Automatic annotation (TrEMBL):
Cell location: Membrane
Signal sequence annotation: 1-21
Name of the protein this chain belongs to: RING-type E3 ubiquitin transferase
Keywords linked to the UniProt accession: Membrane, Metal-binding, Signal, Transferase, Transmembrane, Transmembrane helix, Ubl conjugation pathway, Zinc, Zinc-finger
Species the sequence originates in: Oryza brachyantha
Compositional bias annotation for Acidic residues: 46-59
Region named Disordered: 38-59
Membrane topology recorded in Swiss-Prot or TrEMBL: Multi-pass membrane protein
Molecular functions per Gene Ontology: ubiquitin protein ligase activity; zinc ion binding
GO cellular component labels: membrane
Catalytic reaction annotation: S-ubiquitinyl-[E2 ubiquitin-conjugating enzyme]-L-cysteine + [acceptor protein]-L-lysine = [E2 ubiquitin-conjugating enzyme]-L-cysteine + N(6)-ubiquitinyl-[acceptor protein]-L-lysine
Enzyme Commission number(s) of this protein: 2.3.2.27
Length: 111
């Protein structure tokens, strides 16, 4: 009985260790994804609207789609390889959980 209990405890501990190791490796990969974000500064809504795709209307070019706050002049932005821009701080928080674009779900490869 004691041997069975010891083996069961060892199996549970081993599975927990594997799950923890896999999760930690995934977090490190996501943190490296932030290196793929191009840094820029918000200049003005008129310039941002001119760069936006014609006929879009779905995206708000003057606001972060993660925190839903408007960009302010001189604020640090990050642009993903897919072309979507977000606050740099918001993008950092996002990549701690997921490794894809919040809008189009395109995979972001680590830099």
């Amino acid at each position: 009985m004691v041997i069975v209990l010891a083996v069961a405890l060892w199996v549970v501990a081993r599975l927990a260790w594997r799950a923890w190791s896999a999760r930690r490796a995934g977090l490190k990969r996501r943190e490296r994804c932030l290196g793929s974000v191009t840094a820029s500064q918000f200049s003005s809504p008129a310039e941002e609207e001119a760069e936006a795709a014609p006929g879009g209307g779905e995206e708000d070019p003057a606001g972060c789609r993660i925190c839903l706050e408007a960009y302010e002049l001189g604020e640090a932005l990050g642009t993903l390889p897919c072309g979507h821009s977000f606050h740099r701080v918001c993008a950092a928080k996002w990549f701690k959980r997921l490794d894809s674009c919040p809008l189009c779900r395109a995979a972001v490869q680590p830099a």
